[in-house]
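Continuing the batch. This is chain 6 of the set; chains 1 through 5 are on the previous pages. Same settings as before, nothing changed between runs. Recording input and output for traceability.
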Amino acid sequence: MRALASRLGVTPMSLYHHVEDYAGLVRALSDAVYADVLRDIDAGLACHEEVREILVRYHAAVRRHPQLTLAIFATPEAFAGVTREITDRLTGLLQTMTTEPLLWRDILIDHAHGSGLPFARDDDAPAVPPPDDGDYRRALDCLLSALGPRRQ
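Output for chain 6:
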Protein backbone atom coordinates (compact mmCIF):
# COMPACT_ATOMS: atom_id res chain seq x y z
CA MET A 1 0.00 0.00 0.00
CA ARG A 2 2.91 2.35 0.69
CA ALA A 3 4.40 1.73 -2.74
CA LEU A 4 1.05 2.35 -4.42
CA ALA A 5 0.49 5.51 -2.39
CA SER A 6 3.94 6.72 -3.38
CA ARG A 7 3.26 6.06 -7.09
CA LEU A 8 -0.05 7.90 -6.81
CA GLY A 9 1.52 10.81 -4.91
CA VAL A 10 -0.72 10.38 -1.87
CA THR A 11 -0.22 9.20 1.68
CA PRO A 12 -0.89 5.56 2.60
CA MET A 13 -3.54 6.77 5.05
CA SER A 14 -5.51 8.33 2.21
CA LEU A 15 -5.72 4.87 0.60
CA TYR A 16 -6.80 3.33 3.89
CA HIS A 17 -9.55 5.93 4.05
CA HIS A 18 -11.14 4.19 1.03
CA VAL A 19 -10.16 0.54 1.51
CA GLU A 20 -9.32 -1.37 4.68
CA ASP A 21 -6.43 -3.45 3.31
CA TYR A 22 -4.80 -4.88 0.19
CA ALA A 23 -7.64 -7.38 -0.35
CA GLY A 24 -10.12 -4.49 -0.19
CA LEU A 25 -8.09 -2.60 -2.76
CA VAL A 26 -8.03 -5.60 -5.10
CA ARG A 27 -11.80 -6.07 -4.62
CA ALA A 28 -12.45 -2.43 -5.44
CA LEU A 29 -10.25 -2.60 -8.53
CA SER A 30 -11.84 -5.82 -9.73
CA ASP A 31 -15.33 -4.41 -9.23
CA ALA A 32 -14.40 -1.46 -11.44
CA VAL A 33 -12.59 -3.50 -14.09
CA TYR A 34 -15.10 -6.35 -14.36
CA ALA A 35 -18.27 -4.24 -14.00
CA ASP A 36 -18.90 -4.26 -17.76
CA VAL A 37 -18.86 -8.06 -17.98
CA LEU A 38 -22.46 -8.41 -16.79
CA ARG A 39 -23.72 -4.93 -17.69
CA ASP A 40 -26.50 -4.78 -20.27
CA ILE A 41 -26.45 -8.46 -21.23
CA ASP A 42 -29.39 -8.98 -23.58
CA ALA A 43 -32.12 -10.67 -21.54
CA GLY A 44 -33.36 -12.50 -24.64
CA LEU A 45 -30.19 -14.51 -25.22
CA ALA A 46 -30.34 -18.29 -25.07
CA CYS A 47 -28.16 -19.84 -22.34
CA HIS A 48 -25.33 -20.80 -24.73
CA GLU A 49 -25.21 -17.28 -26.16
CA GLU A 50 -25.33 -15.65 -22.73
CA VAL A 51 -22.52 -17.86 -21.43
CA ARG A 52 -20.52 -17.04 -24.55
CA GLU A 53 -21.10 -13.29 -24.20
CA ILE A 54 -20.12 -13.28 -20.52
CA LEU A 55 -16.94 -15.25 -21.23
CA VAL A 56 -15.93 -13.11 -24.23
CA ARG A 57 -16.33 -9.98 -22.10
CA TYR A 58 -14.52 -11.54 -19.15
CA HIS A 59 -11.66 -12.71 -21.37
CA ALA A 60 -11.32 -9.18 -22.77
CA ALA A 61 -11.07 -7.77 -19.23
CA VAL A 62 -8.46 -10.38 -18.26
CA ARG A 63 -6.44 -9.49 -21.37
CA ARG A 64 -6.60 -5.78 -20.55
CA HIS A 65 -5.72 -6.26 -16.85
CA PRO A 66 -3.88 -9.57 -16.40
CA GLN A 67 -2.02 -8.38 -13.29
CA LEU A 68 -5.35 -7.79 -11.55
CA THR A 69 -6.42 -11.36 -12.26
CA LEU A 70 -3.11 -12.60 -10.86
CA ALA A 71 -3.61 -10.42 -7.77
CA ILE A 72 -7.03 -12.02 -7.22
CA PHE A 73 -5.44 -15.48 -7.50
CA ALA A 74 -2.84 -14.47 -4.90
CA THR A 75 -5.41 -12.91 -2.56
CA PRO A 76 -8.37 -15.30 -2.26
CA GLU A 77 -10.22 -12.97 0.11
CA ALA A 78 -10.40 -10.49 -2.79
CA PHE A 79 -12.67 -12.89 -4.69
CA ALA A 80 -15.96 -11.14 -4.00
CA GLY A 81 -18.22 -8.52 -5.49
CA VAL A 82 -18.41 -8.51 -9.28
CA THR A 83 -16.02 -11.44 -9.73
CA ARG A 84 -18.29 -13.55 -7.51
CA GLU A 85 -21.37 -12.32 -9.42
CA ILE A 86 -19.81 -13.40 -12.73
CA THR A 87 -19.00 -16.84 -11.33
CA ASP A 88 -22.48 -17.24 -9.84
CA ARG A 89 -24.18 -16.14 -13.06
CA LEU A 90 -22.15 -18.63 -15.12
CA THR A 91 -22.90 -21.40 -12.62
CA GLY A 92 -26.63 -20.70 -12.80
CA LEU A 93 -26.66 -20.71 -16.59
CA LEU A 94 -24.58 -23.87 -16.79
CA GLN A 95 -26.96 -25.64 -14.40
CA THR A 96 -29.57 -25.46 -17.16
CA MET A 97 -27.12 -26.78 -19.77
CA THR A 98 -25.25 -29.64 -18.14
CA THR A 99 -25.35 -32.08 -15.26
CA GLU A 100 -21.84 -30.92 -14.30
CA PRO A 101 -22.13 -27.12 -14.06
CA LEU A 102 -19.23 -26.61 -11.63
CA LEU A 103 -16.83 -28.65 -13.74
CA TRP A 104 -17.82 -26.74 -16.89
CA ARG A 105 -17.69 -23.40 -15.11
CA ASP A 106 -14.13 -24.12 -14.03
CA ILE A 107 -13.13 -25.34 -17.50
CA LEU A 108 -14.57 -22.26 -19.20
CA ILE A 109 -13.16 -19.75 -16.71
CA ASP A 110 -9.75 -21.46 -16.73
CA HIS A 111 -9.78 -21.26 -20.53
CA ALA A 112 -10.47 -17.50 -20.34
CA HIS A 113 -7.60 -17.10 -17.87
CA GLY A 114 -5.22 -19.30 -19.82
CA SER A 115 -5.88 -17.37 -23.01
CA GLY A 116 -5.68 -13.95 -21.37
CA LEU A 117 -2.91 -14.18 -18.81
CA PRO A 118 0.05 -14.70 -21.18
CA PHE A 119 -0.04 -10.93 -21.64
CA ALA A 120 0.86 -10.25 -18.00
CA ARG A 121 4.20 -8.54 -17.44
CA ASP A 122 6.41 -8.43 -14.37
CA ASP A 123 7.99 -5.09 -15.19
CA ASP A 124 6.86 -1.54 -15.88
CA ALA A 125 7.36 -1.81 -19.63
CA PRO A 126 4.43 -0.68 -21.75
CA ALA A 127 1.96 -3.47 -22.35
CA VAL A 128 2.08 -5.06 -25.76
CA PRO A 129 -1.39 -5.10 -27.27
CA PRO A 130 -2.69 -8.65 -27.30
CA PRO A 131 -3.42 -10.19 -30.67
CA ASP A 132 -6.93 -10.53 -32.00
CA ASP A 133 -9.08 -12.76 -29.80
CA GLY A 134 -10.43 -14.81 -32.73
CA ASP A 135 -8.58 -17.93 -31.61
CA TYR A 136 -10.08 -17.61 -28.13
CA ARG A 137 -13.58 -17.26 -29.56
CA ARG A 138 -13.17 -20.27 -31.84
CA ALA A 139 -11.89 -22.41 -28.98
CA LEU A 140 -14.71 -21.18 -26.74
CA ASP A 141 -17.24 -22.17 -29.39
CA CYS A 142 -15.70 -25.66 -29.52
CA LEU A 143 -15.96 -25.97 -25.75
CA LEU A 144 -19.55 -24.75 -25.69
CA SER A 145 -20.50 -27.16 -28.47
CA ALA A 146 -19.33 -30.00 -26.21
CA LEU A 147 -22.14 -29.05 -23.83
CA GLY A 148 -24.65 -30.33 -26.37
CA PRO A 149 -27.15 -28.76 -28.70
CA ARG A 150 -28.16 -25.17 -28.12
CA ARG A 151 -31.44 -24.85 -26.29
CA GLN A 152 -33.74 -21.89 -26.76
